[in-house]
Amino acid sequence: MYVEFDRDTCVGMYQCVAEWDAFEKDLNDGKADLAGSTEEDEDLFVVEVPDSEELDAKFAARSCPVDAIEVYDDDGEQVV
Question: Of 12, 13, 21, 22, which is most buried by a Cβ count within 10 Å?
Answer without folding.
Answer: 22
